[in-house]
């Protein structure tokens, strides 16, 4: 009986949408991927576990940061986006990006990452398109980011302008 | 009698400091300038009049922005700094800078400007040193900015690294 209820529920699009809402919050979106057995979701609201985020960023070779500082930085970000490999009980974080900014004139995208096992099938593009759309809806005038040499093409292919008017980025580090 | 009281007050360092606090708020600083008849102050708290800010930014050739949007952007900035030419009744805004950021990991400096009549005597350096110090006190790890070709040297001379690791800045515009 219980089994039957589960099977019926999974086929009911209203219930299914409701369940996805509960997992991914308001404004979630599904990403199309080649593998039909995997479902991938973009979420603005699903809470990111900071240890899971650390595993994701160390998987692409970034040095870990103190969890306490990451928590505060996320709290004060304009936008935090997770890419989730769907599981009805425990979705896994396989991508991430966040933005800082005033939400009006300027926003800067930081910490764009897709887990190596999920790269090269369009998730990065989907994530960036989602981020830009969210900032557009807010009405942000200008979005900026800093691209490592290996990913400049990745951003250019999505319509980002590299160094317009010969502007150069300058960095200052605390230590 | 009144005259005398004024003269005495101006010579009393306690009263004088009190008066400067009322004008420039907590954490103000005086900038040293060659002309001994002018006093210049950096302030985090003195309210910037948005029309005065527009006059300042148009004086260096920046196109005006809708006041309503500038107000919202300033409200959501991490730091807003004014450079004021001192007058006991009505200080004039002669310089400006603001930062966006999470206050922990990243901050970006925007809209750095000194009025042309006040350029070349060290105010820009003083303003930037103040901005960096404030962000350091907050504990921000990494500060970034975008420099027009003509001002790259200006930032480099103050210890900013240009395109470390060959990073390039990418821009995306709303219109
Ligand atoms: C950069 C990064 C986020 C890209 O993520 P991704 O999911 O691999 O990106 P995509 O799959 O959307 O695009 C990657 C390439 O695969 C190609 N691709 C897209 N969909 C594809 C598909 N269905 N099948 C095969 N290839 C595809 C794209 O053409 C793209 O090529 P391009 O870069 O020349 O445009 C990811 O490589 C990463 O996390 N890198 C390490 C961290 C990093 O460097 N972050 C950026 C810091 S600035
Ligand atoms: C860029 C800008 C903020 C600099 O402000 P500034 O007050 O002129 O800057 P400073 O006076 O501190 O420094 C300017 C130069 O004058 C020199 N200078 C500093 N103190 C001086 C003094 N007492 N006497 C003579 N020259 C002096 C400095 O060596 C400096 O040279 P450098 O750029 O090679 O380091 C200003 O020119 C400006 O508002 N420009 C238009 C807007 C703009 O381009 N903003 C930056 C956008 S990224």
TrEMBL record, chains A, B:
- Key words, A-Z: Acyltransferase, Transferase
Gene3D superfamilies per the record?
Answer: 3.40.630.30
PROSITE patterns recorded: GNAT
GO terms of molecular function? N-acetyltransferase activity
**A GO CC term assigned to this protein in UniProt:** cytoplasm
Q: Which InterPro entries match?
A: Acyl_CoA_acyltransferase (IPR016181), GNAT_dom (IPR000182), NSI-like (IPR045039)
Occurrences of domain N-acetyltransferase (ranges): 40-175
UniProt keyword annotation of Heme present: no
Q: Does the keyword Isomerase apply?
A: no
Q: Which Pfam families match?
A: Acetyltransf_1
PANTHER family the record matches = ACYL-COA N-ACYLTRANSFERASE (PTHR43626), GCN5-RELATED N-ACETYLTRANSFERASE 2, CHLOROPLASTIC (PTHR43626:SF4)
* Name of this chain's protein: GNAT family N-acetyltransferase
UniProt organism field: Candidatus Synechococcus spongiarum LMB bulk15M
């Amino acid at each position: 009986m219980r089994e039957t209820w589960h099977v019926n529920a999974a086929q009911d699009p209203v219930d299914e949408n409701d369940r996805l809402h509960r997992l991914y919050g308001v404004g979630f979106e599904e990403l199309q991927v080649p593998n039909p057995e995997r479902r991938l979701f973009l979420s603005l609201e699903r809470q990111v576990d900071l240890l899971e985020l650390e595993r994701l960023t160390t998987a692409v070779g970034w040095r870990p940061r103190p969890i306490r500082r990451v928590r505060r930085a996320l709290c004060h970000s304009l936008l935090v986006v997770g890419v989730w490999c769907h599981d009805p009980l425990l979705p896994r974080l396989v991508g991430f990006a966040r933005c800082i900014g005033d939400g009006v004139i300027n926003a800067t995208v930081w910490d764009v990452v897709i887990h190596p096992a999920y790269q090269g099938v369009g998730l990065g593009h989907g994530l960036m398109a989602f981020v830009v759309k969210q900032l557009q809806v807010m009405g942000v005038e200008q979005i900026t980011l800093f691209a490592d040499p290996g990913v400049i093409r990745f951003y250019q292919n999505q319509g980002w302008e590299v160094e317009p008017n010969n502007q150069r980025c300058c960095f200052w580090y605390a230590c």
